[in-house]
Amino acid sequence: MQRREVVTGSLVLIVLMLVTLLPFISLFTTALHPSGSVPLGIDWPANPQWGNFARAFQVADMPVLLFSSTIIVVGVVPISVAISTMAGFAIGHLRIPGARALFLLFLLGLTLPLEGIITPLYYLVQSFGLLNTRLAIILPLIGLYMPFSVYWMRAHFVNMPSELSEAARVDGASTWDLFWRIHVPLARPAIASLTILLCVWTWNQFLLALVLVQDPTQRTMAGALGAFQGHYATNIPLLSAGALLILLPSLIVFLVFQRQFVAALLQGSVKG
Amino acid sequence: MPAASAAGARAQDRPATALRRSRLRALRRANWAGWLMVAPALLVYVIFVLQPLVITVQYSLYRWDGIGASQWVGLQNYVTVLTDQNFIQILTNAFQLILFFCVISVGLGLVVASLIRRVVTGRVGTAARTVLFLPQVIPLVAAGIAWSWVLALSGVVNQILGAIGLGGITQAWLGDFGTALPAVGLIGVWVLLGLCTVLLLTGMGKIDPALYESARIDGAGPVQEFWSITVPSLRNEIAVCITVTAIAALASFDIVYISTGGGPGLATMVPGLEIYQLAFVGQQVGLASALAVVLVLLVLIVVLPIQRMTGGEPL
Amino acid sequence: MLSFASATFRRRPPGRHGTIPAVVAAALLAVACAAPGTTPAPASQAPTAPPAASAAASAAASQAPASAAASAAASSASASEAQYCGTQPVTLNAWFETGFQLPFSLSQEFTKQFPNVTWKISQDQFTNLINETPRLLAGANPPDLVRLPTMVTLVKDGLLKNLDTYATQFGWDQWPSSELAQNRVGPTGVGSGSLYAMGLNYSMTGVFYNKKLAAQIGMTQPPQTLAEFDALLAKAKAAGLQPIMQWNASASGGGLAFPLQDLMADYGPASAVNDWIFQKKGTTIDTPANLQAAQHLQKWIQAGYFPKDVNAIQYTDSNGRFEKGEGVFTFNGDWEDANYDKQMPGNIGFFLFPPATAGGTYAAMSSPLTYGIAAKAPHADCAAFFFNWVATNPTARQIDVSVGGSYPGGPPDLAVPPAASGSIINDTLTAAQQVFKDNGTMGFIANATGSIFAQGWTPELQKMVGGQETPAGMLKYVQAQYLQELGS
Q: What ipTM goes with this model?
């Protein structure tokens, strides 16, 4: 009985895993077919065209895209993490006057779909003269990340014992000392998780890039992939190769930081 | 704010001692420093989220092509959004997607999580957790490209159907009126299943193992265990999953944009894509904004009752 | 999923649940009632006058490469490159349509002749360009040269450069008026008024066929009437062939609009269709003649003349499959000539959509390959010079024909360069002459307004394929959409 359960359960999981991997496998075999051909869904080619990856790398201008995406991530993530950590500390630990109202104000943004504000965002960014620049993605993204980030960091700080701070206060520590010397080092795991999550979300951001930046070389990876699809819709093998290349960085980040990723999730739901 | 903090200070002032007073001064300093610490986050949030939200409401009351002069139309855009057949279909589509995204993702997530937790505890389970989570990590655009290829007439799905003798039902799944929306729904399940699984697994970690042991002693099988222990204990986690997947369904954009463009007809058109098309293709900013406001409210209407359902417990 | 950031992992808000709706309500109520669009668009300005012709003509001619001097001499106006583009390095910011080689080839040749001009070319699919054009033109980097899908709203919003001054200077107003008519916008709509765009060449549409498959169903000569064409389609179906290969997916837009419009021109006058496309007041697409046309198309759909997955077929897939032998006929334009010549040499044929009755006049969609200049373009003069060069330079005209496959237009006294013998281009050029002779050129019903294709024709045609819309319902809906967009 026990054994049969295990076998059935394993089978179910294996089938689900195969279904999950199916699109990746299909992309992969398709990417190896001669450029411009229309192969079957999964069909190992007689003569795999590994060169398609090199070609997609070249025609998609991959180095430029990697550079652009990296700039955007570097522009968004450290600032978001820094200011949300400060805000989370002030709201969750210092319990400043109005902390509760502030927190609710941030919570309001948690369910807000980006489509709800994308139109004015366009005109706002236009009025700043930032359309078609990376700042058009960077600045709104920082704002958009605030609800989740503040919420996340607050959840960490709210659980820190206040005795810790009081002791430091008695020793004459300023509020900033308290934050920077005592609490930030203790918050490292929460900060690390937040950083990883924000990196991946930024990398994958599509709608903002689509609307605010026309030039693919100024976009995020996902936005650039949309443009790449516009160019090479004709060429299914090349498009598949490009799609694989573009999702590779996210995949690598995930596999490397898997533990932190899952830890982040666990934390999020335990503390949340 | 000064008034509020003063009131707070007075309240604490009552049993005034010298020590208290000095601590209070420190506290007040901290309060102001605290506000400074919140300021940057609050500022970007107000500028790039709250302000556009208010402007959306403002736009929604006008007829405007986004460039020229605008014309006040009152609530007319809302009347259109809530009565026009096409808009009703678009909103209905979104709710149908909720069924797929929520019911299947959460249902299947529960099964998978219990399997990993209770039955397949070995390497297969760990691998499944990682693999099922993969779609969460990659750009949805890439997922859209991959799936439009998988579901195409010459794609894998039809290839498999042909191989098992079901060649007769092969079709362009994303191009058919009957199958396009369910197909998009299943892509959503593919994306969300891993997330739900991991969230539910976490919840299961908090269930007292003794519950299961006593159930086993009473002769309960895995199915009974699942219904009588696992599901009730996971009420909160299930609520989180439903919230996340419902928002994902209502606010879907990337996958639909890439895989179907909303077609055929309006079969897969969702509010997000329609907002984009109205505002940036059709130059009907007012109408787009009215739909945007409706979407924001819909999300709240769907999500808040779920919060209440689990209600009661503090965070 | 866009709101992934804000949505994922969230938990119940703490405390009383009633607070959030209250905050939301407060925020929404706090709405300023100021009108949007407070910054009015710049009014359409007269183009900056190019430097006086006499100024540096001789000096510039000596600086320009020999070929440029030659071409300048050939052109009707005594325009030199340096006068319009300067002598310093210039980078033209251009937006081209993906999948069409012509503008790329022309730009390369232009740089070859005038090395101080280089290009920053961005490209996207036509449907995306439709979406992006207004924002591109209004944005911070207004393009010097951009593929235009539709003009009226853009002109109304003052986003396009008025080309009248250039037309006088370069002598474009001496060209056949039919060439420029579609690029003029005036108070009564398109067709007359000021010039806002130029055609790189003038495309022709019709029916391409696979010669081998056509022979297989006994087609010895192109059909002369609609009835003959119907018979051929039925034969193809009976022979187990795919009668028509066409695209109709949302990403490319509904390609069934091609046969639909051809049918419209058979059941009614082409001019009525044009009036609607050019937004003449009081016109409607919902006419008895157009209803017959739509019903005819519906018959084709129900007879299975289109692929069963046509709603999922994109433009490029459709061509790919046609080239591989799937489909006897396909409705398309001469911009695909070069591609067909290459992919199915000797096996590709072309005919104009036949008239309803034998000996009737021919009508076909023929659009200038329309490019415009942003009102705020930094190098408008140079872009205008490029337009003139395309129409008058022998090499450019040759590229127009051999790469673009279309009638190059320009001054009537210039010869039309021949295409390679055996090329399908010669067939489409002949056809173009026929249509121009019959005064049967039409715009494209998909270009009538900015979003009539994406919001009107495409979903409605898809629904008709899916059996979810009637011909009458489609016309009614599209007309309503048209009126809504025109704001009347």
A: 0.88
